[in-house]
Amino acid sequence: MDKPRNKILVIEDEKNMREILKILLDGEGYEVHVAQDGAEGLSCLNSDIFDLVITDIRMPGVNGIEILKKAVETSPETLVIVITAFGTTESAVEAMKLGAYDYIHKPFKIDEIRLVVKNALEKHKLRGEVSILRDKIRTTYELGNIFYKSAKMQELLRLLPKIAGSSSNVLITGESGTGKEFVATAIHNLSQRKEKNLVAINCATFPEGLLESEIFGHMKGAFTGAVYNKQGLFEIADGGTLFLDEIGEMSFNLQAKLLRVLENGTFRRVGGTNDITVDVRIVSATNKNLNEEISAGRFREDLYYRLNVIPLHIPPLRERREDIPLLIEHFMKKFSASSRRLSPDALRLLMTYSWRGNIRELENLVERVFLMTDKEEITASDIPLEIGDLRPESKLLPEMGKDGVNLDAIVENIERKYLLEALKIANGVKTDAAKLLELSFRSFRHRLQKYRIK
Fold first, then answer.
1. What is the CATH number of domain 398-450?
2. Whether domain 7-133 has CATH 3.40.50.2300
3. Which DSSP symbol is given to 223?
4. Phi and psi of 75, rounded to 5°?
5. Contact in structure between 334 and 301 (CB atoms under 8 Å)
6. From CA 97, how far away is CA 163, in angstroms rounded?
């Protein structure tokens, strides 16, 4: 694929000068557009984006200073070089104060303008690279609480910047402890609303009356205990994002009031008579199946469609086991245990556990294990009993009675199980599965062939 050429706009009312600049810059390999006066130059700026604008200052009608102001206003990344006669140095100085990259005196030398244009475009390229790097750093920081390697999470997080760029409501589904609030935070931090508030509330932790007061606020005397006027979370989140966690726990009556806000952007405080208008993006989350809740008459179908404009599902940890080592490493650093390590058998044990509590359960376990032992290397025997009792080998090794056992069959059963489990964890990538079992790829492939595993 050809490398895209820098796009330059030349605005010059003198025909000979305009043609000289075009021929010169064409010869340097740039994509050159020309305008014969300031008015045509403004039209070009309104219809296209340029890396560099070269404009004469003194032109009839629209002059170069107006061109500069327009370029700075419409495309701050575009650099502007002004061309000036000896007698108009003051205008050149004014242009520099307004943001021009440089100025060139007439008559100019060919080598001089080549060098100025080259330096300007290198600065433009560097500015773009710095902007991209800044975005990467910002994204890395803002997604810093989400650690992933699995394809499912890579796909989900790949969509976040695009989702964040819209103003549509988002419904995040997934089991408890999968990281729904982390994703909601990332959506806010990547959005244009990031300078405003992200306000979060768990709908399951408040009774109906208190939840309504928390969300919408209340007026003094609205109910027993309302001794002052209180702003609700909608007001606090105005211009920003409101995260409603466990939205499936919200009462049917309160759902109707939430629907009103989503439909017209207004609400009233509890006990209030005045409508309050807000601009809030709703990100909600639930571990329930809201379609089942709708069928059971516990959740409003019209509200569901308002909330579920953009659906996101976070898979449970047992479906993305590749993320477990990264999460463990993060939690070890969090609990100041980064200098310590897990033995291979301990890691394999944690990789095969079901993690019904997902990331939250994993975090709690790591904290407990590293607090309860001072050993530099944590082994499988240090893992708490509720997990340790699920060691695969305890299910595979039968007790040897008087009649003995078929050792070959037992070994084959163990090998086959671990081969299949490793392939599952590695999403079928044989080289990764071999590493999980600490085998060479050749040895791993031989075992697959031996047990006819495809």
1. 1.10.10
2. yes
3. S
4. -150, 80
5. no
6. 39
